[in-house]
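Pilot study result, target chain (452 residues):
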Amino acid sequence: MRQRADAARSAAPTRGAVIRARIFALLRFSLLFWACVNFAFVAVSGFTYLRSIAFGFALLFALWLILGAIFSDGEPVPVPDTYLLGTLAAWSAWSAASVAWSIQPAYSLAELGTEVGWGLATVAIYYVAARTGTAFRALATTIVTAAAFLALLAIRATFEAGVAGPETALLRAHGGVGAFSTLLVLVAPLLPLLCAPRPVGYGAGAWQAALVLAAFALLFAAARLTENRMIWVAFAVGFLLAAFLAAWRWRTRLARAPLRWGAVLLVLLVALAALFVDAAMHRARSDFKGDATVAQTIAEDPRILLWQHTFERIRERPWTGFGFGKSILRDQLRQETGHPLLLHAHNLFVSQWLQTGAIGVAALLALLGALAWRYWAFLRTPDGTLAAIGLAGLVMLAAFVVKNLTDDFMTRPTSKEFWAINALLIGYGIRRMRIAPPGTAARPPQAQSAFG
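Predicted structure:
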């Protein structure tokens, strides 16, 4: 009897351990709270002071949890895959090295701190924050809510008297319609995850499905108001890729209802094609002030002239570029093209080539490829929840790249949103694969499906 009592006392947690556990629980909650607040203020700009406070607290708590996992008995933070860390480090290091040969070192250094430095900090925050299904749902809901708020703002500005359309409102709230339309292609792939079973979603009940469909309709309506043509191409690529990958991953489900899957995809593609044509025709009327055709507006797009001048500049420094910063040659390009708005390359990869040369483009391609490979590995697992995360990540990545073939929004708020969403998906996915926190343990393969 006495031996059992002694054993029970030795097995009971010490007071110090209980206090540390409560401290770490408070740290995890605080990180999640400030990460949600930070994303909201990144998406809805104009609150610089509050955003800085939220970002500072979120980064502080993330670093505290990392150090606690290393030096104390805090919950372990899984180390990302070596190839992810390696490609991210290579892209960041080469971007930093370009300051040495930049034609504007001060500008490149400032851009490096804003885009690479704060970008890496954003990755750390959301990777550490995405520890459980509850945290994943909270962050994903915040991201979707922020996009929906901006969509409502754009719709209100369109119909409000005395306001010059959504561009004016979104320029103050999110850097303009271009950045906002890029946010939409990042957010849209997250919506189906909210209808997935727990832990990542809220379930596929009637009210959950109705809310997700309403969110899709709201984001699509706001996308049309931006008059951006490339967003519909990005959405179309995303839907096609999602259909192909889902048909491959859940092929037994497809075999039972092929017509239903095919009909939904056909309706979506027809709707996207109609929206693209409508946006292109509206741009033709507004930009050319006449009877110009859609083909003519595409053929006479000023970006074609811009790319000609850009490639002439690239030939001057093909391997190293002119220095980090999207608008490193803004004065030269504006003077050569005679267009006040053509201040950068308006293509993600051409812009990177202009800044950091062919080596920088190779580093960026390697980084995007590493992200895609991680999502592909998720998609191939027997765990249906991980497969759904992998599908969402691949669709998001493809749509983001396509959207940026005619612009470069891997900068300012959009870059932070890009890094945050990738860190959220990968951070939770890697934890589910390696650690499986309480309440998120993987189910047997035969019972797993993110779609019911």
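One observation from the pilot: The two ends are 51 Å apart (CA to CA). A full batch analysis is planned for the follow-on phase.
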